[in-house]
Design brief:
heterodimer; A: 448 residues; alpha/beta; Rossmann fold; 2 domains; five-stranded parallel beta sheet; 13 helices; 40% helix; 18% strand; globular; B: mainly alpha; two-stranded antiparallel sheet; 6 strands
Amino acid sequence: MSKSNLTRRGLLKTGAVAGAGVALPTYLSAAGHTGFTNAPEGNTVTLGFNVPQSGPYADEGADELRAYELAVEHLNGEGDGGMMGTFSSKALQGNGILGKKVEYVTGDTQTKSDAARASAKSMIEKDGAVMITGGSSSGVAVAVQALCQEAGIIFMAGLTHSNDTTGKDKRANGFRHFFNSYMSGAALAPVLANAYGTDRKAYHLTADYNWGYTTEEAIRSSTEAMGWETVAAVKTPLAQGDFSSYIAPVLQSGADTLVLNHYGGDMVNSLTNAVQFGLRDKQVNGKNFEIVVPLYSRLMAKGAGANVKGIFGSTNWHWSLQDEGSKAFVKSFGTKYGFPPSQAAHTCYVQTLLYADAVERAGSFAPCAVVEALEGFEFDGMGNGPTLYRAEDHQCFKDVLVVKGKENPTSEFDILEIVEITPVAQVTYEPDHPQFAGGALGDCNNGA
Amino acid sequence: MFGLEKKDRSLLILVALLTIFAPFILNPFPEGSAMAQFNAGYPDLMQRFVIFGIFAIGFNILFGLTGYLSFGHAAFLGVGSYAAVWMFKLLSMNVVPAIVLAVVMSGLFALLIGYISLRRSGIYFSILTLAFAQMMFALAYSVLTPITGGETGLQLALDDPRILDGAGASAGNIPVPSLFGLEMRDSADLVLGSWVFTFNIGYYFCAVIMLLAFYLSIRIFRSPFGMMLRAIKSNQQRLNYTGLNPKPYTLAAFVISGMYAGLAGALMASMDPLAGAERMFWTASGEVVLMTILGGAGTLIGPVLGAGMIKYMENIISKINSDILHGWFAFLPDGLEDFVVTIIYPFIGKGWHLTLGLIFMAVVIFLPGGLVEGGQRLAALFRRKKTSTDDGSPAKTEPAE
């Protein structure tokens, strides 16, 4: 083959391709436009469940996925219906969403923003998901929420506790049912004051990332408001195996309370270290030394074992609640999987039903219609008492549970006991509260 | 054409054709069929293919030519991403300034890190680069949170200044990155029967840049400068004794490859305007080493193939779950179905690393030259069988050594 021959051929091909490339978009651009991204076609609708299946929160991700599968069953009219029977809105018929059978795709967030976005993007671009939900970390939630806003998809956040998700990083297409750092602080402070007095000296150990900062800020301002003094706040690197070097200085500081702003494996390790150092047997300033864990989860309590006994913390929901909604959910989850659901499972299940219900009430899958249906929506029967989805920041306002490690657990799931159900009025804040300042919802986005 | 030899030119044209027709090549299965699971022709993944192709091409200029194994290359990718997102926030949503600043910034970082790390060679060099990259990761993850957004990553906000775009451009919704008005995320679908092919502007933009990067890398490989880099790889001491100072050459190669990484980072941010610290984690640096070796270190096209292979597995294999497996093997009797699914299950979904590891081992053991060597062997086999009148030219894509 001669030189010129090849060039001519290459040129011809390139020319043809370039021509086709120029012609295509004009010819195609009108095709398949329904006013919003991934409008469901045919008689099915696809939801995207984006949960951590590997990495530090894989256990929670697995529990979230169980809840999603249960929710899909209930939406499609299989199983016992769970919370659909107790939910105050009766729009859901058990025949899918708007008569379309619910299907789902799953992805692995790996608890990394990049991986989570790649997974969410493939759900949107490849699988045609009309809603993305899940996640077990605020970093991931914020990243995926921003992606969904751009793409014109609804994002129903899973477990995310940082103030920023509905604070400075809030988005019009994103909704959070889970509570946040501020609510933890507001709910915990009075209980702590009751139990430990109002003249405590607190020492904070804070995980060195976004969620750690907002939690520390929330707990500090709530406890200082009732008279506590913050002696020091030390940041600890994430995924530190051994916290001994951070625990040792606590006693020298003159503090009598240790606040562990840690989550997951970090909390298990730091709490275990603190108990091993004998902190809880010490007397400082004539008072018993105490430890507080702002955000509890059952999976963490399980990891820390006997060390959590008597330690206060807060949680979004607990399976031992006795209202009708919780009982119905625990029953159908337990029947299917053989053990009670975690708070992560609860929030994910509820988010799925809330989305389906909003679509049903709006009569359309279009994101803007769903946003309108969810904004300012008041509901009950989902395990948290009367709840409001506030329009200003898309945060749910509901009662918060203050819990304590049980002294005599009867099973591996019965680790926490509810100390107080803090009423919603006590944890409500203004949308422009300093801890949530900055950022704007923007307008809802229907996408293409 | 382009000042290339015939062989290189055909390779360039081949790569160009592959990238142009990628939406067809990567979507061989009709929509809705069971095999549609293996389709990779959606914009996000195609963009990843070419972006990581650029990253690996750049890495190969350092590793393939000089033999210096950098274990911290992801740091430059991260620097590029952060620089690009800051440009989006401050200046304009146009991708051009973002890419320019990203390449410059990553070049500066590479100059600094390379100047220090290149005082050592071999394993010490690798450890130094790894240490630098981990330092930068740690800084980005926590200490520099005001600049990098920390764990959440650096994101655009509605109230960013965006000086050049003006205030009106961002009413209500955050604008998306664009090239003089061509939005990166815009796509057109072509429906042919039950096949759907997606043509995405962002992908073609990345593809053009990848072709330019690939062309530049060919020129570097064939230049006297490239020859000098190969001399450093083969025996640095000998080079010293001939009175040549290798350091400026290695440093230049390091900076060039760092700028390639910055370019890739900027493109990632342009396709998806978010920069996260995980991009700089050491596993990300290890990934590009894997890509290069898997494809064939020191070959021109090898790193691109390796990048494609790894990204395909990460995005496609990892999404297969046990339900899908049960769907595939539903035709088997119940007991057998469960058995087959149990055997395969560890290798799919979150177990895709295991599959990748096995493939990597097989390649390193049986095809030390990577996928490119596999291709050459196949081509040689094919040629010997087909024609007796072989013109004698070697059927290979010319590895570096």
